[in-house]
Give the backbone structure.
Amino acid sequence: MKIGKYSIGIGDRFGQQGKAQLDAILQARQLGVQVTPVWNKSFREHAIIHSEPADTRAEADAAVGALAWDGPYFVDADHVNLKIIDPFITVSDFFTLDVADVIGVKADPTVIQTFVEQNREYHGRLIPGLEETLQATENLLRHIGEKYLAAIEEAGRIYQHIAARKIQFVAEISMDETDAPQSPVELFFILAAIAQRGIPIQTIAPKFTGRFNKGVDYVGDLERFAREFEQHLAVIQFAIREFSLPATLKLSVHSGSDKFSIYGPIRQAMLNFDAGLHIKTAGTTWLEELIGLAVAGGDGLDIAKRIYRGAFERADELIKPYASVVDIDEHLLPTPDDVDRWDSQHYADALRHDQQHEFYNPNFRQLLHVGYKIAAEMGDHYLEAVKKYEKVVAENVTANLFVRHLKPLFIGN
Ligand SMILES: [Zn+2]
């Protein structure tokens, strides 16, 4: 089972926007650009919302059926490990093997020694696109082995666990939810170790330089990001040939939604290297639902305000599972009483990711981004409102995905 050159992870917290999301992908196709939709949802999201992996499959199949989509599509078990994977296996065909927690755990010394010996030959080699020759000294290899080999062995165990139960699927290894980014040289030897264990991954999600906070733009050195991204692409191209990894192998960017300022550099790098891309930009759909409700006015706007009040009152609890990926300045949050005085337009303008707008408030946006638990607790009351205002909600979901994501990344402005 092969993934296409371009694919996008379009998670959907409440599973209501599959059609609206697929509509955006159809718009791209009408312009001649094939992007494969991948509906992803993590265990964390399922646990907060009380949904099941099978619900994501049902949503994807329903959207595909309703819009008569005849292209490939996938359902991604996002960030899974051996403890939580089983309920995902039958309904998923894309698995993101998350081994970030094992980074830094030391593997068996013989495993590290074997790795050092197997990769010594790369000392002094030149990877086209990397500025310098590889300084694969014994020390460096040992350091990389100590840091990553246990994680890669764990990925191998998760992969085998799936492969024993399923024949056709796409595998990704994710290392993004960790403290330090992986350098292009580290990525090269990580890929070497992955190939040496026979794990045929088609996407890999390193941690990139800079901050990837939930729902807001990238914070970091853009030039450095662009250089590192190009070097990662160079490493992947070389590794595909050198280690006989799947020719479809590509980078997966777990964007945390809406990293608009890196879209330009990513697109340029993809063009320079004729490379593919998988990008996950999932949480953004839930915020478009809220924007749609606010714009609808009446009880839609009331619900959007109540969700903010709930999120504000329970900010600490909501932020906790996402603490490392949000930067909220509490002093810059509007009070719920302020928000209650807002009209539809003001609420939408504060939330919508238009950084030029005077009312746009990234603190408000991030808090609501992690605040979906409040909507989940409203249960049918929330879902009925989303259904009642389906048209305006869908317009926002589709336009956001097409205009702000698919177009700058895959089509060009
Ligand atoms: Zn991730």
Observations:
- Residues 79, 174, 176-177, 205, 254 surround zinc ion (CB under 6 Å).
- Residues 138-163 form the longest helix (26 residues).
- The radius of gyration is 21 Å.
- The mean pLDDT is 96.
